[in-house]
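Inverse folding, one chain.
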C-alpha cells in the first residue's frame, strides 16, 4: 500500500476527518451493497477480522488501536477501542488474525522515528467483558530504518489451514534493492536479514527472539524474495497465497502461490520483470517503465549501480500467478512505453496492473457465496487510478473476484480476474462472513456486500423447467421458465469465463429474448440470475 508507508515516519495520532460514505457500488446485479458503519476519530484503519467466539468484528489502526465492532439488531454496528499501544507495545500495527478465541497482532515497535525499530507479534484470549492480557509471540533484534516510504515492516499474519502454524510477512526496507543509507547513518545498507521474507512459526510460539542474522533465522524463514506481501490468505485446498505491490517502476503487481523454501525474485525480479539496476550500464532515462512522476525517479533511486548485488548462482525464482483477464491486466510495453490490455492481445501478465496496490486477499473457503462466486478468491485494490500513483489506465479502488486454477504443468496457478465492485475510498481489507463480504476503508468506513445464498442447480426440478432455444442459435436466443418470473439479469460468458453479453429485463415475465447476432461462432455459457436461483446452460452459436 504505497500511501500507508510514510506514516512510519510520523509521530502522534493522525485523526481522520469526518467523511460521508463514498460512491461504492456493485457491478453485478446479483450483489447488494450498503454502508454499515463508520469508525470515527481513528488513525488509519488497516485490518478487519471476524470473531466467531463473540459473533463480532475487530479492526486495527496503524498506531496500535484495536477496535471492537458489535452488530445491532437493525444490522448497523457500534464500535469501541478496546486495546492499544499502551497495552501491547506495537506502535506501528499492520497485522491482525483471529483463531480459536485468540487475537493475534503483528507490526513494528519504532524505537526512534526514522532511525530504528524491531518487529513484534503478540496474542491475547478474547474474554468478553474482561481486558486483554497480551502475551509476546516474538520480537526481533532492532534493525535500521531507511527513513523513506519503502520501510514496509512486519504486516500480514495468517494461520495455516490446520491452525498449527502462523505465517507472518516482513516487507523490504528498500524499493528495489537500492542503497538506503538513511542520510549516511547506515553506509551502503540495502536489505537486512530480517526483511523481505515470510516467516513460519508454530502456533504456540511465545517469547521467541529473532536476531538480525540469516543463519539464526533459517529455521523460521518460510520463503524469501517477497517485496511486500501485505496480503496473506489460505485457500480452501490449504494453499497459501500472497499479494504485494511492486514498487516505483510500472511492473505488474504480484500474486504468488507461497511454497516452503522458495524464492520469489526480489530484488532481482519484480512483478515478473527483471530489475534493470542489476545490469551494468542501466540508463534510467531510457527506461520506458520508469514513470517520471513517481518518487523513485524524482529522488534518483534508479541509477547505474556497479555495486548492485549479483543474483546468487543457481538461484531459481518462483514466478507470480498469471492473470488471463479480462480485468486488472494492463501493462506497459517496455519497448514502446504504450499501455496495453494483456487479454486483448491474447497474453497474460504476472499478475495485476501496475500500481493497484493489492490488499484484502480472502477466499470463500466454506463455499458460502453461491453462483459464480462459490469458492473464489477476492482482492481489493487500494490505489485510485490517476496521473500520480495509481493503476495503469484503470479506476482502481475496487473489489476483484479471482477465479484460480492450476496450469497444465501443475507448478503454478493461473487466474481470471473480474471487477465486481468499485468506488471505494482507499480500501485496506476484506473479511468473508456467511454470504457477505465486509470491506474496510482506511478512514474507517465499512461496507457490506451481500452475495447470493440459495442456488438451484441443473439437477433440481425448477432448473429442468428452464428452457433455452434454439440451442444452435445465430441471431436470437429465447428463454422460458417459471424461475424467470423473478429474473434480475442474464449473462453470457465465453469458455474463458469472460462476460461477453448481458441482458437486464425492464419487466418481470417468464420469458426473455436476447440478440446474439454480435457473438462469434462457438461455445458459450448462459447464466440466468434471480434473487434465489442461478441457472446455467451451455449454448452453441453458429455463423
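Residues assigned per position:
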Amino acid at each position: 500500500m504505497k500511501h500507508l508507508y510514510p506514516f512510519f515516519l510520523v509521530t502522534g495520532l493522525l485523526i481522520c476527518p469526518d467523511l460521508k460514505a463514498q460512491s461504492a457500488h456493485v457491478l453485478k446485479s446479483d450483489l447488494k451493497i450498503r454502508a454499515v458503519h463508520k469508525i470515527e476519530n481513528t488513525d488509519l484503519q488497516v485490518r478487519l477480522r471476524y470473531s466467531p467466539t463473540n459473533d463480532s468484528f475487530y479492526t486495527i489502526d496503524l498506531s496500535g488501536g484495536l477496535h471492537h465492532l458489535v452488530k445491532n439488531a437493525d444490522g448497523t454496528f457500534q464500535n469501541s477501542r478496546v486495546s492499544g499501544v499502551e497495552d501491547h507495545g506495537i506502535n506501528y500495527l499492520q497485522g491482525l488474525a483471529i483463531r480459536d478465541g485468540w487475537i493475534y497482532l503483528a507490526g513494528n515497535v519504532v524505537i526512534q522515528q526514522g532511525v530504528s525499530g524491531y518487529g513484534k507479534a503478540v496474542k491475547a484470549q478474547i474474554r468478553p467483558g474482561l481486558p486483554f492480557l497480551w502475551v509476546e509471540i516474538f520480537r526481533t533484534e532492532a534493525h535500521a530504518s531507511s527513513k523513506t516510504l519503502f520501510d514496509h515492516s512486519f504486516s500480514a499474519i495468517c494461520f495455516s489451514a490446520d491452525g498449527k502454524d502462523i505465517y507472518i510477512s516482513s516487507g523490504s526496507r528498500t524499493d528495489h534493492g537500492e542503497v538506503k543509507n538513511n542520510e549516511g547513518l547506515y553506509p551502503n545498507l540495502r536489505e537486512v536479514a530480517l526483511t523481505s521474507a515470510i516467516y513460519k512459526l508454530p502456533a504456540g510460539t511465545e517469547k521467541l527472539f529473532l536476531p538480525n542474522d540469516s543463519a539464526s533465522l533459517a529455521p523460521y524463514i518460510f520463503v524469501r524474495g517477497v517485496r511486500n506481501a501485505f496480503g496473506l490468505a489460505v485457500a480452501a485446498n490449504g494453499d497459501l497465497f500472497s499479494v504485494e505491490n511492486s514498487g516505483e517502476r510500472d511492473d505488474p503487481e504480484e500474486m504468488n502461490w507461497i511454497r516452503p523454501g522458495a524464492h520469489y525474485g526480489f530484488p532481482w525480479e519484480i512483478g515478473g520483470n527483471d530489475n534493470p539496476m542489476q545490469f551494468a550500464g542501466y540508463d534510467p532515462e531510457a527506461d520506458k517503465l520508469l514513470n517520471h512522476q513517481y518518487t523513485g525517479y524524482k529522488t534518483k533511486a534508479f541509477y547505474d549501480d556497479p555495486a548492485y548485488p549479483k543474483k546468487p548462482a543457481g538461484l531459481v525464482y518462483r514466478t507470480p500467478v498469471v492473470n488471463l483477464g479480462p480485468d486488472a491486466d494492463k501493462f506497459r510495453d517496455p519497448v514502446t512505453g504504450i499501455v496495453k490490455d494483456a487479454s486483448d492481445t491474447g497474453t497474460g501478465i504476472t499478475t495485476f496492473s501496475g500500481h493497484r496496490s493489492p490488499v484484502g486477499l480472502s477466499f470463500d473457503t466454506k463455499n458460502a457465496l453461491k453462483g459464480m462466486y462459490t469458492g473464489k478468491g477476492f482482492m481489493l485494490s487500494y490505489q485510485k487510478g490517476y496521473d500520480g500513483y495509481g493503476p495503469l489506465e484503470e479506476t482502481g479502488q475496487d473489489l476483484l473476484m479471482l477465479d484460480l486454477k492450476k496450469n497444465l504443468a501443475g507448478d503454478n496457478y493461473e487466474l481470471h480476474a473480474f471487477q465486481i465492485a468499485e468506488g471505494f475510498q482507499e480500501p485496506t481489507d476484506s473479511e468473508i462472513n456467511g454470504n457477505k463480504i465486509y470491506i474496510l476503508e482506511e478512514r474507517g468506513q465499512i461496507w457490506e456486500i451481500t452475495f447470493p445464498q440459495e442456488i438451484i442447480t441443473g439437477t433440481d426440478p425448477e432448473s429442468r423447467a428452464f428452457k433455452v432455444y434454439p440451442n444452435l442459435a445465430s441471431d436470437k436466443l429465447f428463454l422460458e421458465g417459471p424461475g424467470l418470473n423473478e429474473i434480475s439479469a442474464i449473462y453470457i460468458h465465453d469458455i474463458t469465463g469472460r462476460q461477453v453479453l448481458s441482458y437486464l429485463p425492464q419487466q418481470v415475465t417468464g420469458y426473455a429474448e436476447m440478440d446474439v447476432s454480435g457473438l462469434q461462432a462457438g461455445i458459450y455459457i448462459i447464466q440466468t440470475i434471480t434473487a434465489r436461483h442461478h441457472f446455467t446452460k451451455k449454448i452453441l452459436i453458429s455463423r
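The mean pLDDT is 88. The longest helix spans residues 85-88.
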